[in-house]
Amino acid sequence: MPLALDPAGVTEPIVAGVGDPALAGYEFDALLDKNITDALRRERLAFHNLDVLERLADPRVGELIAVPGGDHGFVYRARFRADGGYDGGPVWGRLASAWRCCLAEFGPIDWDVEVYSSGHEWPRALSLPGTVLISHRLPASSVGAQWLYVLHELLHQWFGARIRLAPASHARWEAWVDAIAWTIAARVLGAEADQIYATVYKRQMVTSEPGLAERGSLVLAARRILRDDDAGLARFAAATTEAERRARARLPRTVADAPPLDAMKGPSDAV
User: How far, in Å, CA of 88 to CA of 31, rounded?
Assistant: First the structure.
């Protein structure tokens, strides 16, 4: 029998499926149920994304986040609005321009995205529908935090939130999202950004960590495809539009396999 969810006692962020004891009885991919939705509505929380999940055709427990009220080390960073607006400090002003590029390329989403940071030990950055979480280890003023982490997680609002992604192609999807972030950043920041991204992923290719080396190779291959194919981003946009159509028809969102990638033979033409 699943345990009852009690946000009143929460002093850690609830991210369903990653070990919170209040959700230990739930499968990560289980559907939201009345027990959870009633509890979240009853208690005072600083933030939860239940309202966003309820706009999706098949909301899952594993996409739920609830941030406790009170001072538990959480810092509100910014809000990227569905209308393209941005509420936050000037340090992320150019990232707001990238957000508007994403909306123009991949179509509207009908929720805002709030960004929080915390000292809690989750992955350095995590995206859930309507929410991006970043670690305090990523200073808000850091170029790397903004363009390699936050932009990537914002893109998951389309690729992961609007479209459900096939777990079997997780590595390829992550590479595609990196390459899309690179493409958007180059539009906003210019050629210098192109060189910086290329350097990051070329270095990954020569690391002794096989998974990281493969990731670098896949990202470089994906970026080359998007650079050379004017319709490349449009195909991704079409997939998100179809997912939105299905959601509005109360059908399950698409569980999408990532488009295949052939790893590059060499990094020389990556940019």
Answer: 33
Ramachandran assignment for 84, one of left (phi > 0), alpha (psi -120 to 50 degrees), beta (any other): left
C-alpha dist (Å) from residue 224 to 46, 52, 109, 179, 245: 42, 34, 28, 9, 30
Percentage of the residues of the chain whose pLDDT score is greater than 70: 83
Q: Say if residue 106's pLDDT is above 90.
A: yes
pLDDT digits (tens, 9 = 90+) for 127-160: 999 999 888 888 877 888 888 899 999 999 999 9
The H or E element containing residue 48 is: strand 45-48
Backbone angles phi, psi at 259, to 5 degrees: -55, 145
Joined together, the tokens standing for residue 172 give 């390829």
Q: In Å, how far from its chain's centre is CA 15?
A: 14
Angstrom distance (rounded) from CA 241 to CA 162: 9
